[in-house]
Amino acid sequence: MNSFQFHHLVELALAEDLGAAGDITSAACIPAEAISRAAVVAKQPGVICGVEIAEHVFRRLNPQVELSRKVSDGAEVAKGEAILGIVGTSRSILTAERTALNFMTHLSGIATTTHQMVKLIEGTQAKLLDTRKTTPAYRSLEKYAVHCGGGTNHRFGLHDAVMIKDNHIVAAGGISQAIRAAKAHVNHLVKIEVEVKDLKEFEEAKSERPDVIMLDNMTPEKIRECVAVNQGGPILEASGGINASNLRAYAETGVDYISVGWITHSAPNLDLSLEFFS
After folding, report:
1. 8 A C-beta contact, residue 205 and residue 215
2. Do 232 and 247 belong together in one domain?
3. Neighbouring-strand partners of residue 213
4. What is the pTM of this model?
């Protein structure tokens, strides 16, 4: 993850929190010269993501702050384990606290949820994919968190791959028409994926030789049928109606990828806190 991907988001977050008056509580209660030692600590086990972002937040409020990284992104931590040590002015640490934790708890939650789901499909050939169901403007961070949790990133946006979904098919006049039009429009380096909802649509799509076929809202039994007739055809991706309770069943169908939006849009935050030491 490059720094340009989060620096502007940190600026927006700090501007939102500080407003025009700044941290009036810390300014009122803490002498400007006071120095404190603190640490970001895990309140529950999980996979960490966003350490570099948190470091940037603390440095943004105090360029002279001393930071000691205890773990890196992608690391599994236990409850009570220290993640980042901090020594600096008390005011700056307190002012940075919530913004730094907001980034870390959210991204670590996605990384942790992704890791849990990846563990569920171990031993199968299926890989877990994210989607474009991300927080606006936070996509690069959330997809990075999926990567830290052991998942695989799907296309980043509308610009880097063709994905023909149900509404595209209706507007184009059919599956075959949509795939043929896409092939005529993009060059050979751009992948083409098409969504189908049953075996009949799958066979029509397969005959047009797209790169990937998405099997949308099919049962594991129906997906097994598609896998059986695919015989070295396009890459197969399962999507829709897949959750933690049935993820393993979908992975065991022989499908290549499983895409789930909820690992980014519904993952619970990982409980982290900032603790001061006397």
Report:
1. no
2. yes
3. 194, 236
4. 0.96
- Classified as helix, coil or strand, 87 is strand
**Chain mean position to CA 16:** 23
Amino acid code (one letter) for 242: I
d(CA 192, CA 208): 11
β-partners of residue 84 are 40, 69
Encode pLDDT of 214-255 as tens digits.
Answer: 999 999 999 999 999 998 999 999 999 999 999 999 999 999
Same domain membership, residue 107 and residue 130: no
Catalytic positions, written as ranges:
98, 133, 165, 195, 216
Q: What is the largest CA-CA distance in the chain?
A: 73
Question: What are the E-state strand segments in 24-139?
Answer: 35-42, 46-47, 66-69, 76-77, 82-89, 127-129
Task: Please give the order of strands across the beta sheet that includes 192-196.
Answer: 127-129, 257-259, 235-239, 212-216, 192-196, 162-164
> Which residues neighbour 214 within 8 Å (Cβ) at sequence distance 6 or greater?
163, 193, 194, 195, 196, 237, 238, 239, 259
**pLDDT of 163-180, one tens digit each?**
999 999 999 999 999 999
- Range of 226's domain? 119-265
**Domain at 136, CATH number:** 3.20.20.70
